[in-house]
Amino acid sequence: MYVCICRQITDSQIRKRCSEGVSTFSELRAELGLASDCGRCGHYAREIIAEVASAAKCRDMSYAA
Ligand code: FES
């Protein structure tokens, strides 16, 4: 699904970059150009970053147990 219509960036692209180590909105913006036109996608992109980070923490906790 498209998150950023202006730059044609999908949630899959965002999730992939997050799983590869991008952890901040600024990094994502610099790499993909996200939210660099109208900016309407910024809020949803931040939600996806937080979701991926939260899932990673859950995975880390399950390995530690
Ligand atoms: S929708 Fe992302 S910059 Fe416009």
Gross CATH architecture: Orthogonal Bundle
Give the uncertain stretches in residue-range form: none
With strands numbered from the N-terminus, the spatial order across the biggest sheet is 1-2
Which structural class do you get from the secondary structure elements? mainly alpha
The amount of helix comes to: 55-70%
- Secondary structure tally, helices: 3
Q: Write out the distinct hetero groups bound to the structure.
A: FE2/S2 (inorganic) cluster
Average pLDDT score: 90
Distance between the termini: 35 Å
CATH homology superfamily: BFD-like [2Fe-2S]-binding domain
Largest sheet: 2 strands, antiparallel
At the fold tier of CATH, the topology name is Arc Repressor Mutant, subunit A
Shape: elongated
CATH class: Mainly Alpha
Question: Nearest-angstrom radius of gyration?
Answer: 12 Å
Tally the beta strands. 2
SSE string: EEHHH
Strand content: 5-15%
Total discrete domains: 1
List the helices and strands and how they pair.
Layout: E1 2-4, E2 9-10, H1 11-19, H2 25-32, H3 42-64
Helix pairs in contact: 1-3
The structure holds FE2/S2 (inorganic) cluster.
Question: Would you give an account of this structure?
Answer:
The protein has one domain: Arc Repressor Mutant, subunit A. It has helices at residues 11-19, 25-32, 42-64, and strands at residues 2-4, 9-10. The chain is elongated, with a radius of gyration of 12 Å. It has a two-stranded antiparallel sheet. Helix 1 crosses helix 3. The protein has 65 residues and is mainly alpha-helical. A hairpin with a 4-residue loop joins strand 1 (2-4) and strand 2. Bound molecules: FE2/S2 (inorganic) cluster (FES). FE2/S2 (inorganic) cluster binds next to loops.
